[in-house]
Amino acid sequence: MAGKLTVYLRLMRPANIVTSVADVLAGIAISGYFFNLKFEPTSFYPVVLLCLSTMGLYGGGIVFNDVFDAELDKKERPERAIPSGLISLREAAFLGAFLLLWGIGFAFSYSNLAGFIAIAIAFFALLYNKVSKHIKFIGPLNMGLCRGLNLLLGISVIVPMLTQFYYLAAVPIIYIFSITMISQGEVHGGNKRNLYIGGVLYATVILAILYFSISQAQSMAILFLLPFVWMIFTPLINAIKNPVGPNIGKAVKAGVISLILMDAAWAAAFGSMWAGMFIACLLPLSMWFAKAFAVT
């Protein structure tokens, strides 16, 4: 049983799931829900529901990535769970469907709006895995849209705030677009052009968060932005110097895990410093999972 659970976790990429929880927490912080929040069990009920929702949605999307790539992975990544025979294609598809329905169900248990956002996340995750990942520009954009909607899932905890801050979804879209662009050379190596584009997009995201922290008079966000910059640019620069598969893989892995620091910076930029600190504390957990289970 323990062995089967380990296989399921390999499919779900737990380090990545932790980053999706950070996205939702950042969205909740942006909505202002944490302001004057009473530390009572019922106060955190919506937070728990939306975090459980994103765990299912992201986990299910990642599982279906391997389901749809099963034939390709036999050649390129035979060590993965499905091509190695550790789990059947049917079992993996069942797990992915269960997780997506889990995510949608928990979202609807909070509100219809959150439920419809969850359905949209599930739809675009499946669209990416099956179709758009094979299309140069559309694939990275599609993947970024999933993360943008994930941020909105958190903001939807207070419905009026969703109409006020919906445009912030553009920032994670840009960030994930850049990571997906970089990852295109992960298996066979990449060209420096994609890596430079990724670097420019990274800088755009950093400037956007910095702008909001200044406009909101929340300079403490820099405490999360500085390590965020270091974490994403150090491996990216190494990959630019030598754009081979392993170096690009490290850049992608750092980009994904560093989402937690980006989310912490978002929370701090909107005045929820303690929420930002809690989100940042998820980083060691994600890094621990990343040592035990693949990120990409």
TrEMBL record:
Record's bilayer topology term: Multi-pass membrane protein
InterPro entries referenced in this protein's UniProt entry, alphabetically: Prenyltransferase_related (IPR050475), UbiA_prenyltransferase (IPR000537), UbiA_sf (IPR044878)
Domain of life, per lineage: Bacteria
Location within or outside the cell: Membrane
Secretion signal span: none
One Pfam family from the record: UbiA
TM stretches of this protein: 15-35, 47-68, 113-129, 165-183, 195-214, 220-239, 275-294
Keywords attached to this entry: Cell membrane, Membrane, Transmembrane, Transmembrane helix
Name the record gives this protein: UbiA-like protein EboC
